[in-house]
Specification:
four-stranded antiparallel β-sheet, mainly beta
Amino acid sequence: TLSLHAALPFCSFVSKRSGNSEIYVMDADGSNQRAATANRSINNFPSWSPRGDAIVYTSYRAQGRPMLYLSTRGRGKPGRILGRLSGMPQYRAVFAPSGKEIAIVMSPQGSTEIYRVRLNGRSLQRLTENRSIDISPTWSPDGARIAFSSDRSGTPQLYLMDASGSNVRRLTFDGAYNTSPAWSPAWCLEEGSPRS
């Protein structure tokens, strides 16, 4: 998994060079590689904060269960986040453009669902609710919508919803395995054409 910060020349990635799956950061040109984690566990899905001063990621260091952690070089407190929600496995998180909340993938009863929540664990809002696998949330640049992948149609396809979880609509109809949606400031994902 490679995560490039949109405004700063940094990348984060996962490597097993130490024998464990750890998060590393580097300059966008590949230089200055350094470890952001060193906990001898499985660490994956790094995602940059909008200001580039923190990375949220998934780690299995707590009793082998996936939980969310923060690595910072700014004012934020590093370590485990969302401890209040420790009853559910937390598989992935991505920052909202505001940096004040995240969209997360959790598994409340076997199926994976998408939620949004503040970093302190308050204001938890469930955005999807079905028996399907809903994963890979990604915020629109304005924070108004979230694209995600779901197998609710039988195969993984891309969907779009308002940041409140309403107005869900399917975006892809070709191919049997469409995952990992990504936004660009100059491209309107749901229309498939450049913005004018």
